[in-house]
Design a protein that fits this description.
Helix content of chain B: 10-25%
Strand order of the largest sheet of chain A: 3-4-2-5-6-1-7
Number of helices of chain B: 5
Distance between the termini of chain A: 87 Å
CATH topology of chain B: Purple Acid Phosphatase, chain A, domain 2
CATH architecture of one domain in chain A: 3-Layer(aba) Sandwich
Radius of gyration of chain A: 27 Å
CATH superfamily of one domain in chain A: P-loop containing nucleotide triphosphate hydrolases
Helix content of chain A: 40-55%
Number of helices of chain A: 28
CATH architecture of chain B: 4-Layer Sandwich
Oligomer: heterodimer
Number of domains of chain B: 1
Number of strands of chain A: 26
Structural class of chain B: alpha/beta
CATH topology of one domain in chain A: Rossmann fold
Chain lengths: ~775, ~220
Amino acid sequence: MLARSDDPALLLIAPTGGGKTLAGFLPTLVDLATTSRDHDGIHTLYISPLKALAADIKRNLRTPVDEMGLPIRIDDRTGDTPASRKKRQRADPPHILLTTPESLALLTSYEDAPRMFAGLKRVVVDEIHALADSKRGDQLILALSRLQVLCPDMRRVGLSATVEDPSAMARTLACHPDPCEILVADPGPAPDITMLDAVEPPPWAGGGGAYAIPAVMAQIRQHTTTLIFHNTRAQAEIFFHNLWLANSEGLPIGIHHGSLDRQQRERVEAAMQRGELRAIICTGSLDLGIDWGDVDLVIQVGAPKNVKRLVQRIGRANHRYNAPSKAILIPANRFEVVECHAALQAAKDHDLDGDSRGPGPRDVLCQHILIRACAGPFDADQLYREVTTAGPYTALTRAEYDDCLTFCATGGYALRAYDQWQRLLQRPDGQWQLRDPRAAQLIRMNIGTIQDSDKLKVRLRRTRGGKPLGEVEEGFAASLTPGDTFLIGGQIVRYEGLREMTVEVSRERGRKPKVAVFSGTKFATSTQLSHRILRLLAQDDWPDLPDHTRDWLRLQRDISQLPQAGQLLIESFPHNKQEHVVIYGFAGRNAQQTLGLILTKRMEELGLDPLGFVSTDYATLIWGLEPLNDAAPLFTPAALREGLDSWLTGNTLMKRTFRASATIAGLINRNSPQARKSGRQATFSSDILYDTLVKYDPDHLLLQVTREEAMRGLIDFGRIEEMVARVENRIELRRLPRVTPLAAPLFLEAGRTPVDGTAQERLLAEETERLMQAAGLTS
Amino acid sequence: MNGHDFTFADTTLTALGSGALYWRAQELICVSDLHLGKSERRARLGDATLPPYETQDTLSRIEADLHRSGAKTVICLGDSFDDAAAVDAMPEQTKIWITQLQAGRRWIWIEGNHDPGPINLGGTHLAEFKIDNLAFRHIADPHQKNEISGHYHPKVTLATKGRSITRRAFLIDACRVILPAFGTYTGGLRSSHAALQSLMRPDALAVMTGPTPRPVPMPR
């Protein structure tokens, strides 16, 4: 590290637990050891994706610095830092400032940013793999491009866990055209991963893994500290509740996820560090490098969906560099047995997955331009040169950049008549500035690219000040009626009412809770893992799989057939007086969902009267009133493309994608000095705005961005195109008399999406006629 | 015109799928609760801002009904504007659009609780309006008969086989017709709400709006 300390940019890749964070700070400490008494202002900026990580590093860095007796001042600054301390930091910055991308963006928006960052020498970006795949990373790199102009000598260091494409990450971090070198550390011994072989087979559907509670309890007893990862917060809550009921010895077990209140999370973190907990139930909130001390087992409940994340999670166990990590996978349902098995093989083969990202998204650039304007007048040419040094934006054309600038200045063609979107003006000297300096407050309040779905705080009623328990999603809160019970932070609470933006609850003992459906992130199974699953299904037999799963697959092969990589299997059968179609696309949850939307629209046009659909990572089940006898017209690439285009105009997912981009680009403000806009209000207004732009300004910048976003993320059309390319026109439609083994679990899946259309009109006609007849009113 | 014909006070009226009421014999269209300028008003009052195009959306739907029906008289049944200031704040373009819609037609603004008093736009401003034996007013008067009103934004939810469907709805009984809200930014009050229950007679019908308007006994 020290030998490379003068590189303009350096990427260090080491497995979790390799001590890379300290390595990243080494040149800083060496430099400050000699100069700290003379160094004014910030010397090194450390950026982590998590607030908790910044706080943790502060503690870990303090110890060696104090032991060496260095007069180095270290402080963190995140959304959780009190305002008084933030103010002090701006007046008198510490030598090492630990922060997050959002807090950094905010810092660069102040007019005194040049003064505050005047002495900056180094930037350390920790866990850059967790940022580089997201808009948070794009925003960070843009902020660095700004800092680089303020401090031309600034050196960049990126610290990353094992990734599939180090050079892509180096390109992201580099200040172009300067290079970014890559250092790869020894990956250490191969991990010891197994799949749980429980006495009871996993259920047919669902994702909770409750069947495995006794086995998990046994593992906790045998190990010092166990981390139990879940894919969603709701599942983590339910699992924690059940585990606690089974915990007859009263072992200390905690829960940690992003919806819990900060104080609660901090209590768990502290207990964990003191080594007081035997197990901790967690979600992605613990994915990153917080040092948890003596974890000797990682359990992953539910299929990991993504091999890279699995490997990184497994690395949480055993923070000693030279010992193998130990991990157990627990499939939550029958299909996940297959998926876990495929993931396990991939991890053993070091076959990591990852989708390459396109150029940097322009909504983030729009926000960057507004942030730049907050800091003072700027020159458009200079800012263009600046942003094109940022890895994700090197290919940005001047025309694209000008579009963004125009959007920031006027809101775009359709909105130019409205005052609230006229934000920038060009001065006589050619510089751009905020039209109304007061707008800076609003822009600063809305900095960030994280699209938290809309959350409401949960508090106990009639406690003074109301002790916060955590947060639930607004949609979940809306579904509650007083008296309903749900789980939060491992306790059952009773819903009392909604007061302003707070869910009021009281404690409730010993009742079975209504399921907490606040969902957290749902990941889609990666392309690489899906391909592995298809290869696994193509085997003649499955000696490595448990008998129950093996029998299930054999039965499917006898009754229908197994899906294959080179063709698209579609099953069509009647069930329960309705017609059903199953499309085994293996395109991941989001793309299968999109496929459901496009196909039902097409089926509507073909008179098949679809009623609804449900999707999983491997298949989509559609039900309706008429049978599907010919699949070809549904699956031509042109038909699907047209489906996406025409469907672009009306769909709620598209609107949600638009809302995210519109919020990032500053068209919609989530926060305002008056009041926080509730999620429903934001949805309401962004939906109409979306319809308006589609109608009056279809080429609006944000609609272009929305279409680009539709290729990935929630809509993931790119995966549908991949599927179509993979199967070409080899479509195998099987008409069967009844539900098939592979289709059966789909009937138990939650998250059914209804289809509005002819079928709805047919149902409404039937029902109104029935009611009129019953009332004796038929004409 | 896609509509549901019904007889009310010896007169044939049509509930249109759009939520407008059409009186063929009089070549008359009645729409209620447009709430034009709602987003502007919210922005003015410092509430969370809504985007501004809802006025265009509402007007373009009125325009479509006028073209299809060729109506010569238009009654806006109150709460046409979210408040009096919303009229003044309306962009010139929108005012011109309204004037164009009014050209060659008799246009009557009935006062509502949101827009009492005169407004600075063409057309006749009335507290209520009587034609033949029918009275048009904003809020239903429980002691009157043969009246057509709005104000409550009624909607109806039906549980059909497999899913429940909610639509804005006309409420109709022997004494009165209550129109659904026509404006883009308007919520709804379920027909089962006490206010509507006490106002409407037990044998009232609801006509659900949508591609095909459909009558159903008013859900209680």
